[in-house]
Specification:
Elements (H helix, E strand, L loop, with lengths): L1 H50 L4 H8 E7 L8 H14 L4 E10 L2 E9 L5 E11 L2 E11 L22 H4 L1 H13 L2 H11 E7 L8 H15 L6 E10 L2 E10 L4 E11 L5 E10 L5 H4 L1
Parallel strand pairs: 1-5, 6-10
Antiparallel strand pairs: 2-3, 3-4, 4-5, 7-8, 8-9, 9-10
Length: about 300
Amino acid sequence: MKITNLIVLMLLFSVVFAEKTDNRSVLLNQKNMELNKEDNKKIVESYYLKVTGQEYKSAMSEYLSVNYIEHQETADFSKEGLQKFYEKRLKKYPTSKTTIHRIIAQDDLVFLHVEEKISEKLTYTHGELFRIKDSKIIEHWSAIQEHPKELKSGRRMYDGQAVDYSKNTGIKYTEYTKQSYLDAFTLPVPEAVKAIDATTTKRYFQHNPNVADGVEPFKAAPKKLKSVAKIGLKTTLDIKMTVSEGDFVVTLSYFRLPVLLGNQIVFDLFRVMDDGKKDEHWDVGEKFKKKNIDKVF
């Protein structure tokens, strides 16, 4: 009987010890991932500030992997094309100033929300996404959009709230945010409007050039798209990737809009509240040729 009790105690101890070891391993892995994420941010930030200036050649040599994959159409989908892109841009805009407004990272991905000021009259907004492997940049996606003189909301495409890294609403509500975005553009109008109401704050701060602040202007979008769909001009939204950190969710999407807007690569940024509702929105989009869709994404 005593031997049996001893065996039971030993088994219980083994289970408890194994559970504690597993928990420690999980915590250690999480800590390592956080450290890697911060390292990845530093790599991308350092690279980008150099590559957009006089040091573009040395930056590419130092930071880009030998297996680097380029998705930027204006860089001819290659490392060589990217070098030519920055070479031409530097010659054309030698005094341009780059400001990184937001850095959002998850796992091996790092997203930059960037303002490129060419002159007092010309500014570009960038969405830049990088994948890191073994401390090298191995993949890159980009959207560059000229900033209009005025936005309907009176804001800028890059101003507004910074990332609150102390929060976790981005990670917590990634799928919810992604689905609510899809619902707004894919559901029939009554359901789309209802979904927007349920997942968006009434004040909804807007940085899209063509939409005013508030949930009501946002709710008008499905109605407009429905009206053009009646004449055969349908909208396609295909979310390819998400990056979430702090209180932000970033989506990378293929967006096919009617008439003149055509096929676009679009980055959308959503600032998410504690209850999961979207409270602020930014986007950056760039047209590309339909034949290049597999290269762009």
